[in-house]
Specification:
Elements lengths: L1 H5 L4 H16 L11 H33 L44 H23 L1 H10 L7 H10 L5 H8 L4 H12 L8 H8 L9 H18 L7 H19 L9 H7 L11 H13 L18 H5 L23 H13 L16 H23 L3 H20 L3 H14 L10 H16 L8 H19 L12 H8 L4 H5 L6 H8 L18 H13 L5 H9 L6 H19 L8 H12 L5 H19 L4 H18 L10 H5 L1 H9 L3 H17 L8 H12 L4 H17 L1 H5 L3 H15 L7 H19 L8 H11 L16 H11 L5 H18 L5 H32 L1 H4 L4 H23 L1 H4 L3 H12 L6 H15 L6 H26 L8 H5 L10 H34 L6 H22 L2 H14 L6 H22 L1 H7 L1 H20 L1 H7 L10 H24 L3 H19 L7 H18 L1
Helix pairs in contact: 2-3, 2-16, 3-16, 3-17, 4-5, 6-8, 8-10, 10-11, 11-13, 12-13, 16-17, 16-18, 17-18, 17-19, 18-19, 19-20, 20-26, 26-27, 26-28, 27-29, 28-31, 29-32, 31-32, 31-33, 32-33, 32-34, 33-34, 33-36, 34-37, 36-37, 36-39, 37-40, 39-40, 39-41, 40-43, 41-43, 41-45, 41-47, 43-45, 43-46, ...
GO molecular function, one term: guanyl-nucleotide exchange factor activity
Pfam families: BIG2_C, Mon2_C, Sec7, Sec7-like_HDS
Protein name: SEC7-like guanine nucleotide exchange family protein
Length: 1268
Amino acid sequence: MTAMWSLQTYLKDTCRIVNGLLKTALGPPTGSSTTLSPAQDSTFRNDSVKCLVNLAKAMGNWMDQQLKVNETVWPKGSQVYASMDSNASQISELEGTISDCDSQPDTSNPEAYDASMLEQRRAYKIELQKGISLFNRKPSKGVEFLISTKKIGSSPEEVASFLMKTAGLNGTVIGDYLGERDELPLKVMHAYVDSFNFEKKDFVEAIRFFLRGFRLPGEAQKIDRIMEKFAEHYWKCNPGSFTSADTAYVLAYSVIMLNTDAHNNMVKDKMTKADFVRNNRGIDDGKDLPEEYLGSLYDRVVKEEIRMNSDTLAPQNKQVNGLNKLLGLDGILNLVSWMQPDEKPHGANGRLIRDIQEQFQAKPEKSESVYHTVTDISILRFILEVSWGPMLAAFSVTIDQSDDRLATSLCLQGFRYAVHVTAVMGMQTQRDAFVTSMAKFTNLHCAADMKQKNVDAVKAIITIAIEDGNHLHGSWEHILTCLSRIEHLQLLGEVSPSEKRYVPTKKAEVDDKKALGFPNLKKRGSFQNPSVMAVVRGGSYDSTSLVKSVPKLVTPEQIKSFIANLNLLDQIGNFELNHVYANSQRLNSEAIVSFVKALCKVSMSELQSPTDPRVFSLTKLVETAHYNMNRIRLVWSRIWNVLSDFFVSVGLSENLSVAIFVMDSLRQLSMKFLEREELANYHFQHEFLRPFVVVMQKSSSAEIRELIVRCVSQMVLSRVSNVKSGWKNVFTVFTTAALDERKNIVLLAFETIEKIVRDHFHCIIETEITVYADCIRCLITFTNSKFEGDIGFNTIEFLRFCALKLEEGGLVLNEKLKNNTISALKEDFSDTQSFTDLDEQVSYWIPLLTGLCKQVSDPRPAIRKRSIEVLFHILMDHGHLFTRPFWTGIFSSIILPVFNNIRSKTDMLFEESVDSPSSASLDTEETTWDVETSTLALQLLVDLLVKFFRSVRSQLPSVVSIIVGFIKSPFQGSTGSGISVLLHLADGLARSASEDEWREIFLALKEAASLTFAGFMKVLRTMDDIEDVETLSGQSVNIGDLDDDSLHIMSYVVSRTKKHIDVLSQIVEVVSDLYRRNQFSLSASHVDILADIFSCIASHAQQLNTDTVLRRKFKRACSVQNLTEPQLLNFENEAYKSYMMFLQDMVTCNPNVSKELDLESRLVTECAKIVKIYLKCTDPQQQEQQQRKPVLWVLPMESDRVEEATARTSLLVSSLEALCSLEAESLKKHVSSFFPLLVDLVRTEHCSPQVPYVLSNVLKSCIGPILA
């Protein structure tokens, strides 16, 4: 009566009543007297406590009754959210129905009209209606019936069309059927969603359009599957709308919740635009959607409700799904049918309370027996605020001071009712106070003093956890801590700590140990263990660990009391403990997150114990994750955010056993999670596998890293077909393992990636192209492992294997994903800027080729060489798949950068060699690397160019430029390599190159020669400061006349001169070979360029050879350092001879070009020039006349002249023979210019008898006929 009356009186009266009951329950103060007998005092106290308990119970019953009557959702804080309007309109009949399978009879022809046709048509319609009726009752059986009777097709698309277009189908049943997870309904749902065209459709309008034909089911998981597919299909139709389908998925839920909030008149506190924008922050892959866009969504939804068509469907009774209510989602959609309450909505309304108080105060003359009742449960908050303190005090003092079973039972009931009311009303402080007090009264922190009332408190806490779990929130930590301590005490009673395993391997072992019973603890003498002694002696409730330093052993009395109290815990079995964790799957979405957070805290406190770490809560955490894995993805994502951080923290623990246990538990969860198929463009797997990546990258334990590699390997190989977004984390783990310091980890990861690539390559390329890029990047990383062996070579061979798989797969990108693919490639491979116009069939080649391109610069010669070979072999083998634009991208972004990098180093060293002979003369390792790389790469590059010349002929100038750069390189061997490659290029393009392309090649050779001249002249200027001593004194010079720097410079210049002569000789050889092969087809422009090359080289050679000062310095340096002199004379003779032979061949073989360019005149001029040079060295008088001042020679002049004349004899003979080869008309034309020279030759002394003989032939055969 008191309890019911308190709900109908003033708050101040309630306060007086509760305080009075509290004083009565506590009894008279100490030192005061009373007339009551002890029995009467005890009875009076118990009755007072009973009144307080009944008061709490009455408040709870009244609150539950009001909530049930008004069908509200769970209140949160001071706000009570209203339920949905059950009179939501139903779906109307869609346009068009399933057409009859039979055709209309032809009534215009009475003879053809058959009565059986009408019967068949009637039977068909009856059977179709039967199927529709069956579908409205049992949709799966209805679809099965319609398919079996051939009323609809068996394909998911036909069933989906039936659901969309058929009249008479119940919209709610359609929603339930589409939400099923069986194979056929799931495929039908996918086909149903895919049938919509959301392209260029606004997001809100797309939702309206989508939900017009059915009503979303009441079960949360069904809603989740449907909305997940909707978001995925909308993103596919509008790939540029959001970053990923996850954004559309979350935003869809936000729009539905906004629709519920805005258009349900039961909701008093409406969501504002600012609230809506704030709730959707960071949903676009961590970024915010534009605030203007979210504001526009808000305005349209608030203005016009999202609802299904409801014109013709018959109404039906609906009720809130139980699981939906447990999940806390009974209020998320106004598209789900609800029951309309008759009562007015209730809410926290201060004005209502003031009105009631004013009515009481305005009628003081009324009798106190007249009361005013209220139905708004918000008034209960004010009652609780004034009554919870006295209740807590009364229950706590009574249960603490009394061992009477009746009194303690009443107090525990009071605690249960108080927790229930305060929790449901969202009064956090009051709820936590009651729960904390109950947890302390369990006395689990001091088991030696445990009594039956403490065991009853444990039972009450377990009951609260099961009955009011949805509202405990932060109080879960206290409850789970109690469960952890119970398990700890049970564990101490089963086995001694020295023998127990904290990371059990087999469940059977644990069960066997539990069978030993509590007495086993005493028999084993385990009390000498410090952890057990600490438990026996007890501690405070708030102590984080029961393990403390104990100054002395426990007494026998304490041991006896402890064992007896442990036996009391037999009343609490494992079933009761496990029931709390198993019941977590029934908690709503908010409660399960709070439960998991609290369990993580308790588990962390168990694991952080330095001497007594336990894994009980960790094990229960894994079980809880198993229980709740099938929740909708929005809720599961929140749960996993908590679990992920916890697993990472524990996985990095210094306790190896604990870390191993948690990573293996994570593996089990992942195996179960990967059983669920992930739709395209979602990232749930990526988030789920993230802890493996973080621990792999941060763990210092080799055992943990090896375990992670094994776990990931097992997961992927066993669930490879279901892996989608998880591939990125898988490859990240293997990439980290590739650089590990332990060889066994590297080998294990490589074996796994090898098996994945060989056996499951199709699974990689079926996902996003970025996954394939991650795979290639992972393989490339293995080549950088310090454990070279065969791993590097095998990895490079795998890249070639990937190329074969790509060709076999016939890859074609989806047109709508093409732009995103390009963006992803540019982000992952920043060097591939030239691939702006990707071909759909070749986009997957970019990561492969780019990865090999990077390996070409590897410092290890073997890896570098193999990378070059595989790169070009892939291009050679599969280049026929590439289009011309793609070839252009390959050259500009992959091939040419390799050679440009090497060429830039060559140019840099060449410039250094010009300015600093000392630095350039050293052969460094980098120099050797460049020469080796260029030799192999140039040959492969030319092979590639020749094979695909039709597609890549635009790259010929770049290739020729590269080759010319190597020809002029100062490094040993690079000139020969470049020249041989250029010859190979010319030979390969003999029948393919056009006139302009040949011109490009010849101009490149000319440029190479010119650059060589300029660079060499800079080298020669380094000797300008060295004094020509013999020119001044005419005396010989010894070593002491030159310092070390001068000797070093002179030695360097001599060496460079020899290399310079070799380079120009090689160029002359190349040009000679080229014109001989094509002398009959060369155009005038080609011949002109080649003639310039021969002419400039010959003139340069003469310039060097006639520089007497330079020759003396060379001779001086070579004599001092015992070096061979540069063969300047021979070089000049060979250059002029090649030039003269070229002119002679062109005059003979290509008369048209010769006439156009007047090559005969050039030939006669060059022959005359050669004769003059010869006469200059054999006739000293002529030499003295030509020179303005005498030149002093180091060696005797006569000897030098004879030596030079002998060397020039062959060139002179060749020039005279060239004159003889001219026709008579040509000789007659030019005889005036060379006849005086012939006369000089006649009177000159010759060193060889061959000269007079040839001269005689010239005079007889050429001059004689002209004179005659």
